[in-house]
Specification:
This is TetR family transcriptional regulator. InterPro entries: DNA-bd_HTH_TetR-type_CS, Homeodomain-like_sf, HTH-type_Tx_Regulator, HTH_TetR, Tet_transcr_reg_TetR-rel_C_sf. One of its GO terms (molecular function) is DNA binding. This protein has 194 residues and is an all-alpha fold. The chain has two domains: 54 residues, Arc Repressor Mutant, subunit A (Orthogonal Bundle); 133 residues. It contains nine helices and no strands. α1 crosses α2, α6 crosses α8 and α7 packs across α8. The chain is globular, with a radius of gyration of 19 Å.
Length: 194
Amino acid sequence: MKPQTNRQKQALATKQKIFSCALSLFAQKSYESITVQDICNEAEVSVGAFYHHFQSKDNILDEGYRLFDQQSEEAWNQGHPDEPLEAIRFLIMEQAHSMENMGAMAALQYFKHQLSSNEKYILNPDRFFYQTILHAVEAETETGTLHGDSTAITEDILGVSRGLIYDWCLHEGSYTLSERSQRILDMIISYYKE
């Protein structure tokens, strides 16, 4: 891979600055009340620079999902448990910590966007997050530790996880998402062990 030029590095830095400033605003105010100009003012860039990097305000939310997947994969590659059930816990905890770091208000913007978007990226079974949990579940069903269809178990884990994040958003982050995620995941795993 060729090293990036200074211009490419600057463009990436500008895109990341726009993205992080937008997320900061989404954590403070409702998505609908924030304009592209607000984001540009916060990032100290022109509207033209914004549209050079993002097609629309919605595109920033799409970028956030891809960034989450990239960060999850990086965390996984830096070291993950070998035991499949612990690997599932590792990824679900990565998701919970990511949401906690983002904050309930910003996380809610992502969920609202997915409800109205034609592209349901969060449901894409080709995502690293989905595939890695599926492979761990398959390993456990093959050994007989978990009983049932691997895809159905994976869908249950992810569906409940998304529902819990939504509940956490509704409660405005008033409880520790990672603690509750761990407890609920243990309940799901216990159900499929019987």
